[in-house]
Amino acid sequence: MSTGTDPTTATDDPGEAPGGARRGVYAPSRAAISAAHLRTDRWWLAPAATAAGLLAFIVYSTWRALANADYYAAPYVSPFYSPCLAENCEPMKGGPNWALFGDWWGLSPAVIILIFPLGFRLTCYYYRKAYYRGFWASPPACAVAEPHRRYTGETRFPLVLQNIHRYFFYAAVPVAVILTYDTVLGFRDEHYEWGHMGLGTLVMLVNIVLIWAYTISCHSCRHIIGGRLKHFSKHPVRYRLWGWVGRLNERHMLLAWASLVSVAVADLYVYLLATGVFDDPKLF
Amino acid sequence: MTQPERQAWDVVVVGAGGAGLRAAIEAREQGARTAVICKSLFGKAHTVMAEGGIAASMGNVNEGDNWQVHFRDTMRGGKFLNDWRMAELHAREAPDRVWELETWGALFDRTADGRISQRNFGGHEYPRLAHVGDRTGLELIRTLQQKIVSLQQEDFREFGDHEARLKVFQECTITRVLKDESRGEDGGAVSGVFAYERESGRFFVIESPAVVLATGGIGKSFKVTSNSWEYTGDGHALALLAGARLTNMEFVQFHPTGMVWPPSVKGILVTESVRGDGGVLRNSDGKRFMFDYVPDVFKDKYAKTEEEGDRWYEDADNNRRPPELLPRDEVARAINAEVKAGRGSPHGGVFLDVSTRMPAETIRRRLPSMHHQFKELADVDITAEPMEVGPTCHYVMGGVWVEPDTAQARGVTGLYAAGEVAGGMHGSNRLGGNSLSDLLVFGRRAGLHAAQYALGLGGGRPAVDPGTVDAAADEALRPFSAGAGAGEQTAGDSGENPYTLHQELQTTMNDLVGIIRRGGEMTEALQQLARLRARARRAGVEGHRQFNPGWHLALDLRNMLLVSECVARAALEREESRGGHTREDHPEMDRQWRRVNLLCRLADGGDDTPFGKEPAGDAAAGPGRGRIELVRHTTPHIRRDLLALFEKDELAKYLPDEELFQ
Amino acid sequence: MTHTAHFKVWRGDAEGGGLADYDIEVNEGEVVLDIIHRLQATQAPDLAVRWNCKAGKCGSCSAEINGRPRLLCMTRMSVFDPAETVTVTPMRAFPVMRDLVTDVSFNYTKAREVPAFVPPPELEPGEYRMMQEDVGRSQEFRKCIECFLCQDTCHVVRDHEENKPAFAGPRFLMRVAELDMHPLDAAAESGLDRKRTAQEEHGLGYCNITKCCTEVCPENIKITDNALIPLKERAADRKYDPLVWLGNKIRRRGE
User: Fold this and answer.
1) Which range marks the domain in which residue B334 is found?
2) Mean pLDDT score, C69-89
3) Domain residues for A5?
């Protein structure tokens, strides 16, 4: 129908077609091409690498979070266990262990606090893209047909809950503040003397910078800081902040991966110290 | 033959570019049921290619600007050949047309105090062009398109049908304006149009007493052009065939800066904003050669030194503008001369450089689509190296001879023309930025008067004669039976290849009626056009009527050949050089030609189709026996109060003595 | 610098069709559209293709080249190995009409479903004052040339025809964002909540921000980051943020 702009949508619903074979790009109205896609590049590489990277982190972090051991090597605390909110925490002098949960908590104390960064990353707009593509194949890559029979996106439970991303952002900020506090504590030596710095301090410093950069570059943060305004000209300070956050936001993916790796590295570093594999090299 | 489907509308607008959409909006708002017919998809019109801006003397950047200054610039740019009434209306109404776009959602670039920003352009005394980066045409089309959608949404609320009062027939082509010879002026009155759907090849007729032509230009008759495939002069030809006359067809604007490399993009436009924002032209010696090409009439208005020209960008009130910003015809001729003198760039152009004039960041912000275009198409980073540019066929000043106030084609009741297809407004040369404002000002006027005429007719509308519908259908189907004689197509002989004919036509026009013209070459061009015309009668196509581009081209060839003949014939006749018409054998501007308009009309027997009588003898008999004949028309004196806007000295350069001392 | 390239071009119509093979000359500096035109002029005069400006400004020549949604006029032949087969098909999210031409009326239907700009009633033409920083966001979206490649690549409708009635697609969700960010749009005053309707009427929730629209955009508009995600956040303001809801309630009472 070329003469007008009449809708010709969904005259017959291919998802409902007998046998259910003629959906999407195979729908009877579309150009008859038998291949699911005609891409000749290595389109599968990105989702595969994403899935592999995320899986590796999940395996590592699950093991470490449930281990409930080797997460403190004075003066460093693993970011997985900070703040430590149960009575079964290792004592850390001046450290973020407040036994808010009392003595009934028998599991690893990491579980209490990891909910928040986990939720923050799980609902993050970048990670959503990563795992929708990498794990769900929805879609596996652009213009590559997805294998699902139906698709409702984020319109229904549970995925409609992705909309609460901003609450996890609110929660991620105090966590990042506490990790900053941990980093400050890292300027002590193993005898809690101030004014020292080791390789571990450096690791924690890099980690906290990346954590902050990732947190600040969050799309919800960009929205709250200025994106929701209609007139930037009436809020010059927020406009400027929005601009800065926007520039960080362009690198949100990079920061998401960098901070994921740095958290794991920081934890691993503490683990290696705590298990006595080596001693923290002193800088001063 | 079965008669094609018929529909009745109050106003038909042919073309969905800036002028067509503005006309349709106006007609619909006047209460007329309006149909828009366009060859492409809705929103793809050639207007999107306009880059620089819309000229309107809003005075947002320099308060000295007003409509009188704009009028003066327009007349100077057109070397006083302009229809002064059109130039006056245009200059007076342009600001309102721009402001109204804002109420429809347009977002122009802003000044520091929140008004519409305006930029400098060639030939304009003050910064005058409302713009959005370098994609102003896109903004214009999108705004008009969205306004049409909003009117359709209104109709949907009222009638439950989006298309109750305003419908866009996209991807359809008009091949004939139909007339009722018993009505109207001696040229008859319009009764409708004959069209086909490009997708299905199906014919249909729209009965309508008012037809607005807004089909744009003719650039596809030239080889190197910035125009898209749609620019086949359809409206020009439809008007001719409907009995209207075309004026000023010898004036074809060659934009000075088109891409010259790689070959596949040769001709694509490089916006004048590049120069308006500080870009300079250099030859292979690195010299800013434009200082050598300032003609006498402009001597005291342009900078004499590079230093003064450069100061002008910062302080326009106390310095004169650099000669890179001369009107387009001057710059195009200068580039042509430099290349001919052996001082061109490697690919036959000259260098246009912004990289040494502005920081890279500024270039990317102010000229984003130029940056993108060169990066993607030529692998050139304009922030780091100069562009290579050369003249490209860009715009036809000539067009349908219309009444200035109503945009009605003179002599044909019910036919209107607006935008590039209308003639007169720009005289011998159009200033950059005056095109988009022309579309809006005269698009609105055409829509207004077409609607008033159609609604004023009441029930007694001109009738569509079934005989002419049959003739139009025969004509449109001819390519399928060409080459095989009496309507039978044989496998081996499908006639002339329309693509080949088109290429030969483009070469002929480009080489023989191009930027620099000579009497002998144009005579030769007319002979070649006659031969091409004879061959085009045998242009044949294979396949079927569904979306068949070969067939579409075969039909468009008729229009291109007619229009090309107008250009060549008028150019041969006008023995002077002025604006977009440069004669090597008559290099001077001649004041006596100022008041002469050359009108083209269809000669007796010129309609060699099932409509007209077959011409006696061989159609290829030579230039004297073409399909177009010329009529000289003396234009009315310029109104006194408008003349008073100019210095006497300046007028003496353009006007013959009897006009000066009238 | 001339070589012969092997092309596969989809020929056919709604009834059926397939990839046809062509060997065709390619010269330096050419784009895929040049090759399609050469095919028309020499081997396949009835090969249907849409195109207009040939400079990436009109968005007519959208198709899929080696399986990726692209503009034919902005895809240079030099990006392919001379020995490589170049496969050109119509866009696969829309009904095919003939050869490379598809029926894109879905997009025009969706365009009509987005309520137009609402002019502020108190301002006359010429009285509009807007600051550059306030129009910048919407201006980015107005760069859109409506090539509909984003609509083509979006799996929500590409792979699920049944979602078409409910989902406006990236181009028109971006249009909603453009209007919601327009500094003078008076929709809210007229009782139209664009943030809410984005989700309830235009199917914003279907978008799972997998960014294919941004990847294919020939104008490099950051559709996902600058239009869709901000729109999701704005919808969240309305529906999922009691703090904002409470704040608005109190402020409204205060007025």
Assistant:
1) 256-391
2) 95
3) 1-34
For residue B278, what is the domain's CATH number?
Answer: 3.90.700.10
Instruction: Tell me: pLDDT of A15 over 70.
Output: no
**Active-site option among B46, B97, B142, B255:** B255
- Mark whether A109 and A138 lie in a shared domain: yes
To the nearest whole Å, the CA of A154 is away from the closest chain C CA by 5
DSSP state of B592: G
Smallest CA-to-CA distance from B106 within B146, B73, B70 is with: B146
What pLDDT does B486 receive? 38
CB contact under 8 A, B48 and C111: no
Q: Do B40 and C50 touch (CB under 8 A)?
A: yes
B255 is catalytic: yes
Using DSSP bridges, classify how beta strands B203-207 and B5-8 pair: parallel, antiparallel or unpaired.
parallel
Q: At residue A284, does pLDDT exceed 90?
A: no
Which of residues C238 and A34 earns the better pLDDT score? Answer: A34
Question: Among residues of chain B, what percentage have pLDDT more than 70?
Answer: 95
Report the distance separating Cα A116 and Cα A177, nearest Å.
13
- C38 within 8 A of C122, measured Cβ to Cβ: no
Beta carbons of A129 and C207 less than 8 Å apart: no
Q: Mind listing the pLDDT tens digit for each residue in B325-381?
A: 998 889 999 999 999 899 999 999 999 999 999 999 999 988 888 898 898 888 899
* pLDDT for residue C254: 54
Predicted confidence at residue A9, as pLDDT, reads 38
pLDDT grade for B179, boundaries at 50, 70 and 90: very high
Structure tokens given for B52: 């620089």
Q: How many CB atoms lie within 10 A of CB B642?
A: 16
Is residue B315 situated within a structural domain? yes
Neighbouring chains of C at 3+ CB pairs within 8 Å?
Answer: A, B
- Report whether B226 contacts B394 (CB < 8 A): yes
The residue annotated as part of the active site, out of B46, B90, B236, B275, is B275
CATH architecture of C104-254: Orthogonal Bundle (1.10)
ipTM surpasses 0.85: yes
Query: In whole angstroms, what is the distance from residue B148 CA to residue B42 CA?
Result: 11
The arithmetic mean of pLDDT across residues C217-246, rounded, is 89
* Statement to judge: residues A124 and A246 lie in one domain: yes
- Do both A146 and A239 map to the same domain? yes
- CATH topology classification for C3-101: Ubiquitin-like (UB roll) (3.10.20)
Q: Where are the domains of chain C?
A: 3-101, 104-254
Contacts of A21 in chain C (CB under 8 A): none
Task: Name every chain B residue with its beta carbon within 8 A of the beta carbon of A5.
Answer: 42, 162, 168, 170
Please tell me which of the candidates B152, B262, B542 has its beta carbon nearest to residue C46: B542
Angstrom distance (rounded) from CA A64 to CA C177:
43
| Overall domain count for chain B | 1
Give me the pLDDT at residue A12, please: 39
> Is residue A11 domain-shared with residue A91, that is, in the same domain?
no
Active-site residue B124, yes or no?
no
Confidence of residue A86 (pLDDT cuts 50, 70, 90): confident
Does residue A280 lie in a domain region? no
Residue A236 lies in a domain: yes
Based on the structure, what is the number of domains in chain A? Answer: 2
**Out of A31, A133, A249, closest to residue C17 by CB:** A31
Q: How many CB atoms lie within 10 A of CB B511?
A: 14
Q: Which two tokens stand for residue B387?
A: 């562009």
Question: Mean pLDDT across chain B, nearest whole number?
Answer: 92
Nearest residue of B to residue A7, measured between CA atoms:
B162
Which has the closest alpha carbon to B185: B242, B122, B120, B261? B242
Tens digit of pLDDT for each residue in A211-241? 999 999 999 999 999 999 999 999 999 999 9
Alpha-carbon Rg for chain B, nearest whole angstrom, is: 24
Residues A85 and A186 reside in one and the same domain? yes
Query: What's the rounded Cα separation, in Å, for the pair B215 and B14?
Result: 6
Residues in chain A with CB shorter than 8 Å from the CB of B163 are 4
